[in-house]
Amino acid sequence: MQLFTKLCLSFLATILLTNAVKAQTSTAKRKSSNAYRNNFQRVASGSNSNSTFEIRADGTLWAWGDNSNGQLGDSTTINKKSPTQIGSDNKWVNVSAGPDRTLAIKSNGTLWAWGSNRFNGLGLSNASGANSGLNANLQALTPKQVGTDNNWVSVSAGRFHSIALKSNGTLWGCGYTDYGQLGLGYSGTSELLVQIGTDSNWVGAAAGYYHTTAIKSDGTLWAFGDNSFGELGDGTTTQRLSPIQIGTDTKWVSVAVGNYITTCQVSQGC
């Protein structure tokens, strides 16, 4: 009986292994038969966005979908049903799509934004009007540089706020912060990007609907903003106006957020 069981298990394992190899071979053939799969390096479509962006291997930026606020950046407000190249630049390395706006970073470390500046989510001054590249509807229909700094490394567009990280480890935010999602210790709005606290050991951040989560170089996880559904992960539903550490673990390596949820990854072995 034991011998029979072993033979059955061995036969089953052989079948599973064979099917797995076939599946991998089939997948490889599909990939190699579609040259387009090797033509992009980053795709972005946020949980609040009806637009999609891709940065191709040649550094060009392409977009399609909802463009009602100029968030595709092609100088129009016409929706696109297929990928459309945005401008002619080929230095894009990072892009984040919000519900009605987009932020992106070029290889030279400069930060760019376009779409709706409702609640100041672009980090461009509404007061300067045409000087900031905004039209009468407070929209930028093509990418506009945000400030003059050239040490930006990542950016994340939330519902009405934006979070960006510099190479020196400082964290910055702009836009709507009535729920404390900018972590500035108060509610309201911030027209331009302002530094969040004084820490310089941030390594990653993600902007959600009305909340933000971030990771420090020591592997600790932090969160701030709305907590109505417990999305901050601190065991409460208390709104946080400033960053608070979530738990005591020091092995967090990445974080992603949805409208009212947060998902994090820990390093192997924790």
CATH superfamily: Regulator of chromosome condensation 1/beta-lactamase-inhibitor protein II
**What is the percent of helical residues?**
10-25%
Unreliable stretches covering 5 or more consecutive residues: 1-37
> Overall pLDDT, averaged?
82
The CATH class is Mainly Beta
First-to-last CA distance: 41 Å
SS-derived structural category: mainly beta
Number of helices: 1
Order of helix and strand elements from N to C terminus: HEEEEEEEEEEEEEEEEEE
Detail the topology: elements first, then pairings.
Elements: H1 2-33, E1 40-44, E2 51-56, E3 61-65, E4 80-85, E5 92-97, E6 101-106, E7 111-116, E8 139-145, E9 152-157, E10 161-166, E11 171-176, E12 189-195, E13 202-207, E14 211-216, E15 221-225, E16 240-245, E17 252-257, E18 262-266
Antiparallel strand pairs: 1-2, 2-3, 3-4, 5-6, 6-7, 7-8, 9-10, 10-11, 11-12, 13-14, 14-15, 15-16, 17-18
Features of the shown structure:
Methylamine Dehydrogenase, Chain H; single chain; globular; 18 strands; four-stranded antiparallel β-sheet; disordered N terminus; 270 residues
